[in-house]
Amino acid sequence: MNAESMSRPDAGPAVARVRALAEQRLDGRRYRHCVGAAETASALCERYGYDADSGYLAGLAHDLCKQSEIHTQIELARSFDGPLPESVFSNPRLPHGPAAAVLLAREGLSTDPAVLEAVAYHTFGKSGMGPVALAVYIADKIEPSRRDWASTIRLGIDEGRFDGDGGLVRLATATIEAMLDRIVAEDGRPVADTTLVLYNSLSGKSVREWPVR
Ligand SMILES: [Fe+2]
Ligand SMILES: [Fe+2]
To answer: Which of 5, 58, 177, 203 has the fewest Cβ atoms within 10 angstroms?
Structure first.
């Protein structure tokens, strides 16, 4: 046990319990995605000087409710103690984040506000979210088990392109740009307002559509 985990004795058991829950609740592909997100989030936290254990736990837990019944997700999400966009309750892609945060707290798996914030907002983001939440938001998008579009971002991290002052914010900005380029060019899906709100808060721009004209 290293000094870091000794200072938070519940870090280890919580990871083991969340891992068991994820294995039980998710199919193999999603479980591997969660492990990839955990490893990527903890590496990002470490790189930028934030709590790597919180990043790992939140990454592992972020999609715990992804395959739950939608009414269960919504019911849990309604108990989340924090601001949520209205679309959480009308877009079925969105409630699993706040739902998992509520589950973590209810099951006594984490009371760390940074972990709960990261899990709750990993899909739609929040302007002003903390560094662990930002790391998990990014890790969810770029972890290596899927999403070829993210390979240039991963390469940029390895090459140190996002090191130095404001590196995590620059990395988040570049990740959103690459993701939106992909969504618009290849998937033809509409861009969520919440993503543009997060993008504008990170970049200091006032973008209202993608691609930017
Ligand atoms: Fe998710
Ligand atoms: Fe995910």
So the answer is: 5
Residue 146 is predicted with a pLDDT of: 72
Distance 18 CA to ligand 2 centre (A): 15
Mind giving me the DSSP string for 49-70? Answer: TS-HHHHHHHHHHTTTTTTS-H
Number of domains the chain contains: 1
Domain annotation covers residue 208: no
Calpha distance 26→70 (Å, rounded): 15
pLDDT band (50, 70, 90) for residue 12 = confident
Protein residues with C-beta less than 5 angstroms from the ion ligand 1? 63
- For residue 211, is it within any domain? no
Name the pLDDT band for 7 (thresholds 50, 70, 90).
very low
Q: Which ligand has its closest atom nearest to the C-alpha of 96?
A: 1
In a domain, 209, yes or no: no
